[in-house]
């Protein structure tokens, strides 16, 4: 038996083989969530643009607060402020610009107005309740570097700089093929003997779209060399990547490997991963190709751990690694596998911190093991687990 390829090595090969990112396009902020920045963003302005009040209250010089002060102006958000007359206070509201000459704002709860004079209770220190110009973003700061996947909060920050549009990478177009004579699309009633519904493509398309890319469902492929070659050729046309599920083991009915080899190139990896041993990588007519295993859970796990970082890198994303956390096993397993295992688990908070509870059925054909879990727990090859052991886990939310 030839040795199995460690997951980390397969990932390193994939990342090194990822093509250059696609061209840049300009998008409005509303259309930019999940897109990947094609250029650094340097702020042309300060945020906030001027010192302003963090409270409803009174702006004054902190040193003046010891005596009763006349109120010389009223400043609301959206208005310019006149300089503060010496020895006075200004009524001010949250977000209104602090007048020149004031160095603090006193919350209204700490104040009393009697006959037009302001009395302040308690100490006032310089800088109290003033949001300084540029405290969020200073002029000239590089707020985001190219290669960042824009999140909702990033769009808010970009808007605060006055940016209405950003340069992002054109989304990759990912063609999806489902191999297998047994597959029928959901909706067909009833299933004939031997048939199952095609579940992988719905999951994979949604995973691809969740990465901000375009997913093209190229349909089902019959288990014949001719149909496989025709479908691969069609899928590759206009695509940035072709991903198939099923048909990549070495069985008689697995035609993907031979046809990809004929149309381009292919390496069939036997990965040290459970679930998901067979994985094919190569190209079809020059377009990168990934052949995922057919079992839905294997398809999910190999997509998340290998196809996802490959696609993100090809999309131009700098940081493609999900965040792994450590949590304690709430279970024991005496019989380790020789492959690296990714258990479908629920990470929950307990008295002693995060605990890991595995889903009962870890079969690669049981997709509900993913649905009813919230994380994958990594069990290194040939490693037994004793309750209380620390394990690496990755939340499913950070893979989608
Ligand atoms: P294969 O890799 O083609 O031998 O498929 C392995 C297992 O995954 C078989 O039980 C297939 O029926 C199943 N399978 C393959 N493709 C799909 C799919 N698109 N949806 C659901 N199950 C699939
Ligand atoms: Mg098959």
Radius of gyration: 30 Å
Ligand kinds:
adenosine monophosphate, magnesium ion
Low-confidence stretches: none
Biggest sheet, open or closed, and with what strands and sense?
6 strands, mixed
Given the structure, what is the number of helices? 7
Mean pLDDT figure = 96
Binned, the helix content reads 10-25%
Q: Strands of the largest sheet, in order across it?
A: 7-4-6-5-9-8
Distance between the termini: 35 Å
Instruction: Give me the count of strands.
Output: 26
Secondary structure category: alpha/beta
Shape: elongated
Sheet-strand content, in percent, reads: 25-35%
Short summary:
With 400 residues, the chain is α/β, with parallel strands linked by helices.
Can you tell me about this structure?
This protein is an alpha/beta fold and 400 residues long. It contains seven helices and 26 strands. Bound molecules: adenosine monophosphate (AMP) and magnesium ion (MG). Magnesium ion binds next to loops.
Which keywords apply here?
six-stranded mixed β-sheet, alpha/beta, 400 residues, binds magnesium ion, binds adenosine monophosphate
């Amino acid at each position: 038996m030839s040795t199995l390829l460690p997951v980390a090595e397969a990932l390193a090969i994939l990342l090194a083989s990822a093509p250059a990112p696609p061209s840049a396009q300009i998008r409005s902020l509303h259309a930019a969530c999940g897109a990947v920045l094609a250029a650094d963003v340097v702020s042309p302005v300060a945020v906030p643009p001027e010192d302003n009040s963090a409270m409803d209250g009174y702006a004054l010089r902190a040193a003046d607060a010891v005596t009763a002060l006349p109120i010389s102006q009223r400043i609301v958000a959206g208005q310019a402020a006149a300089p503060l007359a010496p020895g006075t206070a200004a009524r001010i509201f949250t977000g209104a610009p602090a007048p020149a000459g004031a160095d603090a704002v006193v919350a209204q709860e700490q104040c009393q107005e009697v006959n037009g004079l302001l009395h302040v209770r308690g100490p006032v220190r310089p800088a109290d309740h003033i949001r300084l110009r540029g405290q969020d973003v200073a002029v000239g700061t590089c707020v985001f570097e190219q290669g960042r996947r824009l999140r909702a909060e990033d769009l808010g920050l970009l808007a605060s700089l006055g940016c209405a549009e950003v340069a992002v990478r054109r989304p990759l177009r990912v063609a999806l093929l489902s191999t297998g004579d047994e597959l029928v699309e959901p909706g067909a009633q009833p299933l004939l003997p031997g048939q199952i519904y095609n579940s992988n493509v719905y999951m994979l398309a949604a995973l691809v779209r969740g990465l901000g890319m375009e997913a093209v469902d190229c349909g089902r492929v019959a288990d014949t060399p001719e149909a496989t070659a025709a479908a691969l050729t069609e899928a590759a046309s206009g695509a940035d990547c072709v991903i198939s599920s099923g048909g990549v083991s070495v069985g008689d009915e697995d035609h993907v490997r031979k046809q990809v080899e004929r149309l381009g190139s292919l390496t069939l990896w036997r990965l040290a991963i459970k679930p998901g041993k067979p994985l094919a990588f190569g190209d079809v007519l020059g377009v990168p190709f990934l052949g995922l295993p057919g079992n839905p859970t294997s398809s999910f796990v190999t997509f998340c751990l290998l196809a996802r970082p490959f696609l993100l890198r090809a999309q131009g994303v700098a940081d493609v690694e999900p965040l792994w956390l450590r949590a304690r096993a709430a279970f024991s397993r005496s019989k380790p596998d020789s492959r690296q295992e990714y258990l479908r688990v629920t990470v929950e908070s307990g008295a002693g911190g995060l605990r890991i509870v595995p889903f009962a059925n870890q079969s690669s054909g049981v997709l509900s093991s993913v649905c009813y879990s919230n994380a994958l727990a990594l069990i290194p090859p040939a490693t037994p687990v004793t309750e209380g052991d620390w394990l690496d886990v990755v939340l499913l939310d950070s893979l989608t």
